């Protein structure tokens, strides 16, 4: 590896051996000096907003980018979610929804710069913080100089970065800034790791301005910063503190100004008023700072991509990532949008693009759900994964990314026995033969009573991953049954496993079992005149997953706060549409199209 010359803190580019990259190193478009960001030597403000391509249907990318430009932003900020592109090790995809190059080119065509955040870890309330589960399943020391972790990162960057190099502004593209790592100062203290990422970006041909992003404490800035990169901040409020912590010569920038907040299941929907968010942004701009609003348009945790936090207990994130953003989940422009447009307008030499019209929605409708298979019936239809195992295997050992895995074993038990799942991650529905015994939860009850008179039977434990942890020391934690299952003090051995695929379940033409269970799989049909956005609700349903025309929209859960699922227009077709629901607890009897979203009871978020 050629030696690298550490760059100066004024934002000058790193010199590298020209043989190390196919693209000659040029001057970055943005730099910083004496407390200012400069664009080709002229003072410049970054007015950015976050839109994640992986949370927006690709047919809607251009619409959302145009709405961002109409808000007065001059830059779009997006993470690159590694696990979205490499779900299976070695199978790296950049097509369709994963065509990051197309998203970047569209931004440029709309007139936006791109602030790219491709670090291996993104947080973002996204599953595992963007790190593939196949990697976290074998490497314990994530986000460090661990040889196994760095080898995987380097292999990923060897596939990703060459696609991005030609899209830099120095090559005529829109990328003007690249983030090295994300809030590393609140996680670790491995300076060599940060240097490895920085040098790897430069060596592969990334010449534009490099940044880091951390919270507003001295400790976070110290451990999250690296020479040659602009140290930026993340906060909801706290401009004065950021000014105090800014390193000498650094420009003032908030890479994540939290204008809203995300939601966990079982909590309230977070909102932040236009006056509150706008007031903090105005304070930052008055102080001479640059800003990226997180989120400008939140989008949706489609499929099972939602992450989770862990603060004493697991806190899984809901399907919606609306985040009370100025551009709503379906593109609706809110009061916050118009307030920010007024704030950003004076920083533009000309008129802002016109405000786009409101998105069109389908009208209200109701259709019945027809049960097709009980939960046990669905499980029985699935193939066994691998051989019989003495102990239950984790999701990672089974190659199960997320969702549901059924664990089965033949058991015998004495009278008044108790069943315990040791290391349950995260929620389980337990059956003995055809009898539903109950639900166990990771941070709740992990034991239940077996039939009082004793006996024997087939034990089935359907375990659901509620979301992989995306922030803090538990990032990368495994899913499934992590240790074992006990009857009394005795371990149960002899397990078979069935992985429920994330694809729409294969359904019989009519109900196949006559159990009294109210859980399982059901289907509904909806006729629409034309494909338009819709909000779907499942009254009476308890805890489920929903597919629209074969696409997994996400999850619903009666604990709230989210009550409706966003179903964007590109997923519909004129005429007959098929909706499949898998509910582990209680199936509802209808599916509703509602004309407005319902995110649940609200509470005000201010931030820190």
From TrEMBL:
EC number(s) from the headed UniProt entry: 3.2.1.23
Span of domain Glycoside hydrolase 35 catalytic: 37-344
Catalytic reaction list: Hydrolysis of terminal non-reducing beta-D-galactose residues in beta-D-galactosides
Gene3D superfamilies registered for this protein in UniProt: Galactose-binding domain-like, Glycosidases
SUPFAM superfamilies named among the record's database cross-references: (Trans)glycosidases, Galactose-binding domain-like
Stretches assigned to the Beta-galactosidase 1-like first all-beta domain: 392-497
Domain Beta-galactosidase galactose-binding residues, every copy: 525-577
Keywords for this protein: Glycosidase, Hydrolase
Record bears the keyword Metal-binding: no
Record bears the keyword Hydrolase: yes
Residues spanning the membrane: none
InterPro entries linked to this entry: B-gal_1-like, BetaGal1-like_ABD1, BetaGal_gal-bd, Galactose-bd-like_sf, GH, Gly_Hdrlase_35_cat, Glyco_hydro_35_CS, Glycoside_Hdrlase_35
PANTHER family registered for this protein in UniProt: BETA-GALACTOSIDASE RELATED (PTHR23421)
Protein family membership: Belongs to the glycosyl hydrolase 35 family.
Protein's name in the database: Beta-galactosidase
């Amino acid at each position: 590896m050629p030696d690298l010359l550490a760059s100066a803190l004024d934002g000058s580019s790193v010199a590298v051996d020209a043989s190390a990259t196919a693209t000659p190193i040029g001057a970055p478009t943005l730099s910083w000096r004496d407390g200012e960001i400069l664009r080709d030597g002229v003072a410049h403000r970054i007015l950015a907003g976050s839109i994640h391509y992986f949370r927006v249907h690709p047919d809607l990318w251009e619409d959302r980018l145009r709405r961002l430009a109409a808000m007065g932003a001059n830059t779009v900020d997006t993470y690159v979610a590694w696990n979205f592109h490499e779900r299976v090790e070695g199978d790296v995809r950049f097509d369709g929804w994963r065509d990051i190059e197309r998203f970047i080119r569209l931004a440029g065509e709309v007139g936006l710069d791109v602030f790219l955040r491709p670090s291996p870890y993104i947080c973002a309330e996204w599953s595992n913080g963007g790190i593939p589960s196949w990697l976290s399943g074998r490497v314990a020391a994530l986000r460090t100089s661990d040889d196994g972790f760095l080898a995987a990162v380097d292999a990923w960057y060897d596939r990703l970065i060459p696609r991005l190099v030609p899209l830099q502004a120095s090559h005529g593209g829109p990328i003007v800034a690249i983030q090295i790592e994300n809030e590393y100062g609140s996680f670790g203290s491995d300076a060599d790791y940060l240097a490895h990422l920085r040098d790897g970006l430069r060596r592969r041909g990334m010449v534009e301005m490099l940044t880091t992003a951390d919270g507003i404490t001295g400790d976070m800035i110290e451990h999250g910063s690296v020479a040659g990169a602009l140290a930026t901040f993340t906060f909801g409020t706290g401009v004065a503190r950021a000014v105090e912590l800014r390193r000498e010569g650094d420009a003032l920038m908030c890479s994540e100004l939290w204008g809203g907040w995300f939601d966990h299941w079982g909590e309230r929907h977070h909102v932040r008023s236009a006056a509150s968010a706008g007031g903090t942004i105005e304070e930052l701009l008055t102080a001479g700072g640059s800003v990226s609003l997180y989120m400008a348009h939140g989008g949706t945790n489609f499929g099972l991509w939602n992450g989770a936090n862990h603060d004493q207990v697991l806190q899984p994130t809901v399907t919606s990532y609306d985040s009370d953003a100025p551009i709503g989940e379906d593109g609706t422009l809110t009061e916050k949008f118009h307030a920010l447009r007024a704030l950003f307008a004076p920083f533009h030499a000309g008129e802002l693009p016109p405000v786009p019209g409101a998105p069109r929605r389908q009208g209200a409708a109701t259709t019945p759900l027809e049960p097709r298979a009980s939960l046990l019936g669905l499980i029985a239809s699935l193939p066994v994964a691998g051989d019989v195992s003495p102990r239950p295997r984790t999701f990672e050992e089974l190659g199960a990314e997320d969702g549901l895995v059924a664990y089965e074993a033949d058991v015998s038990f004495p009278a008044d026995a108790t069943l315990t799942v040791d290391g349950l991650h995260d929620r389980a529905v337990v059956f003995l033969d055809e009898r539903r015994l109950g639900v166990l939860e990771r941070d709740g009850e992990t034991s239940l009573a077996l039939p009082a008179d004793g006996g024997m039977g087939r034990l089935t434990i359907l375990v659901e991953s509620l979301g992989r942890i995306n922030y803090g020391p538990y990032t990368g934690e495994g899913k499934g049954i992590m240790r074992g299952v006990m009857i009394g003090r005795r371990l149960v051995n002899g397990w078979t496993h069935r992985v429920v695929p994330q694809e729409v379940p294969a359904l019989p033409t009519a109900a196949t079992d006559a159990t009294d269970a109210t859980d399982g799989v059901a289907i509904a049909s909806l006729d629409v005149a034309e494909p338009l956005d819709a909000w779907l609700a499942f009254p009476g349903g308890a805890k489920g997953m929903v597919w629209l025309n074969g696409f997994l929209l996400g999850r619903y859960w009666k604990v709230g706060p989210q009550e409706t699922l966003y179903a964007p227009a590109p997923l519909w077709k004129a005429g007959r549409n098929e909706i499949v629901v898998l509910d582990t607890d209680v199936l509802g009897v209808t599916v509703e199209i509602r004309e407005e979203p319902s995110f649940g009871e609200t509470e005000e978020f201010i931030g820190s």
